[in-house]
Amino acid sequence: MNSIDLEVLFEDNHLIAVYKPSGVLVQGDKTGDTPLVDLVKAYIVQKYNKPGAAFLGVIHRIDRPTSGIVVFGKTSKALTRMNKLFAERKINKTYWALVEGHPDLTEADLEHYLVRNPEKNKSFAYQKSVPNAKRAHLSYKSIHKFERFSLLQVKLHTGRHHQIRAQLSALGHPIKGDLKYGAKRSNPNGSIDLVAQHLEFQHPVQDVKVVLSLKNPSLSIKVDEPFDS
Q1: pLDDT tens per residue, range 68-122
Q2: 172 FRET partner, CA 20 to 30 A, in 43, 141, 188, 210?
């Protein structure tokens, strides 16, 4: 993937939202792989013929094996205000997740206490509060049942490390392809079937509501792929 391949979902003077494919980092890490933030910077430099490097602030992240909407700040004002919106949970975030099996309830709230293990890069979910745990809350609704999978619409009410992955695994329905959290098989490309599908928020500078949705998030979820048990 390069900057020319970017799918830009929204852009103005303050923000830019793009689609992140599975396998692409949002920010750089020890792997040295080119992250999405650098690709978007290159796109801005190229599009506007900017001399030198472009300013671009990382507002939020989604996991490397997931796909979906990522928003960046093009100005320091937008970055600061968007960080505040995320911290105050004033961002409406919706995901699609293809999980193994069929949950007993077609829709429900899930509340767990998550403990992050940095060495394993994994979060562990508990039913009751334990030392170093953070409360995690999401709601889900089943929107389609397949023979061996369920497609869930997931709304995040807190933003914890690997929250959706850990909580759905604790429910007994890990996300398809997510070996780290108990899936039976990996996906051929190393992805997991989790997509950041929808974001809503008040624009950090202008008095307007921003609504971002993927037109066809099912393209990132292999619902028609056979699953060998």
Answers
A1: 999 999 999 999 999 999 999 999 999 999 999 999 999 999 999 999 999 999 9
A2: 188
Task: Give the CB-side neighbour count of residue 93, counting CA atoms within 13 A.
Answer: 24
pTM > 0.85:
yes
Beta bridge partners of 19: 69
Contact between residue 142 and residue 96 where contact means Cβ atoms under 8 Å apart: no
> What's the Cα-to-Cα distance from 225 to each of 19, 78, 94, 104, rounded to whole Å?
22, 41, 23, 23
Closest CA to 63 of 151, 205, 163: 163
HEC assignment per residue over 160-202: CCCHHHHHHHHCCCCECCCHHHCCCCCCCCCCCCEEEEEEEEE
Cα separations (Å) of 124 from 82, 108, 127, 161, 181? 28, 20, 10, 10, 9
Domains contained in the chain, CATH given:
3-215 (3.30.2350.10)
Would you say 166 and 175 are in contact if contact means Cβ atoms under 8 Å apart? Answer: no
3-class DSSP state of 57: strand
